[in-house]
Amino acid sequence: MFAAAMAGVLVTMALALVAAARGPSVFDRLLAINLFGTKTVLLIAVTGFLVGRPEWLDLALVYALINFVAMIALLKFVRFGSLGHDDLDAER
Amino acid sequence: MGRTLFSSLMLALTWLAWSGHFDARMLGFGGASVLVVLAITHRMERLSGMDHDPHVGPGILLYVPWLLWQIVKANVGMARILLAPRLLLSPQLLRVPTSQRSDTGRALYANSITLTPGTISLDLNNSSILVHALTLETAQALQDGEMDRRARRCEGRN
Amino acid sequence: MGAIDVLSWIALFGGAFFSILGAVGLLRMPDFWTRCHAAGVTDTLGAGLILLGLFFQAETALVAIKLAMILGFLLIAGPTAGHALYRAAHAHGVPFGPETEVLAANPATASPGSLEGEHGSD
Description:
The structure holds three protein chains of three kinds. Chain A is mostly helical. Chain A has one domain. Chain A has helices at 2-22, 26-50, 57-80, 87-91. In chain A, helix 1 (2-22) runs antiparallel to helix 2 and helix 2 packs antiparallel against helix 3 (57-80). Chain B is mainly α. Chain B contains six helices and three strands, in the order H-H-H-E-H-E-E-H-H. The model of chain B has no long low-confidence stretch (mean pLDDT 84). Chain C is an all-alpha fold. Chain C has one domain (3-116). Chain C has helices spanning 3-28, 32-57, 61-92, 112-116; one strand at residues 101-103. Chains in contact: A-B, A-C, B-C. The interface between A and C is large, with 44 and 51 residues. Strand 1 (92-97) of chain B pairs parallel with strand 1 (101-103) of chain C, so a sheet runs across the interface.
C-alpha cells in the first residue's frame, strides 16, 4: 500500500524533473522545482510509514519549512539578483 | 493582549506536539522559543503596518471545510480537462473585487483562489485581485463572489 | 483487511493518481500560466489525499496530529510560495497565451490596459 503511494510520488518527481529540464523560462523551472520539493515532503512521510518509522514525519515537516524558505529565497534572487535587498526600505 | 495569549498557547502546544520531551531543560527551550517567535512576529507586524489588523475569527471553522470541498470539486474539474485527448482551455485574465476590510481577510481570499486549481491570484491591491483562470467556467464561478463573501465572514474583530 | 485499510488504499491511490495527473499536466500545458494550474492539482488534492491515506494508518494520536499539521502547513505555504512565484513572473512580464481573454467586471473597461493599470510599481 505505502509502496504504491511511494511509486506514485516518485513518478511525479521524475516528471517534475523533466519539466524543470524543459523550461523554457526560469519561472517554469522554479514551478517544477517547487513541485519537486513538496513531493519530497510526501516521499519522506510515505517512506517513514513504509519502513515503520512514523517519526520521520518530523523530517518531512523540516523539509517542508526548508522548501518554503528556499523557494522564497530563490524567487528573491531571480527578481533582484541578490538576497540582501530590503523590501521594506524600498517601499518606504 | 488576548491574541498574544492565544498565539502563545498555540505555539506552546505546537512545540509540545513536535518535541515529545517533558524534562525541565527541554521545556525551558520550548518556552524560550515561544518568546522568540512572539517577539519576531510582533516586530514583523509593526514593520509591515499590520499590527492593527484583525486575525481570523471563529468563522474560519466553517470556512475551511467549505474550502476543502471547493478544492476537491475544482480538482475533479481539472482532472476532466487534463485527461481529455485535446486540452480544451479558455484562459481568462480578470480582476475580481474584494470586499474584505482587512489585509488578513484579503490574504485569506487570495490564498483560497490560488488553492483551488483552475484559478490563481497574480497580484492584489486594496480593492481587487488580479486572477488568471484556466477556463471561462472557473472565471465565472469566481465572479459569483461566493468565496469572497465567505472569506469576509472569517474576519475577526480587532 | 479492515474498513480503515480500504479507505487508506483509496486515499493513497487517489493521491498518487492526482499527483501524477498534475505532473503530466505540467508537461502537457502550452504556456507558463496554464502550467501553474496543473501544478496546483498535485499540490492540493495529490498531497492532501496521500496524507489522508497515511492519517488512517496512524497508530498514535500524536502521529495523526503531526500529519494534520504537515497538511495544514502545505496548504498555507503552498499558495503563498505560489503567489510569490506568479507575482514575480507577472512583474517580469511572462507572456500570456494567445487565446487568453481579458474579462472585467465592467465590460466597458475590458482592455488589458485597464487591468494592468492598477498594478504596483515594483
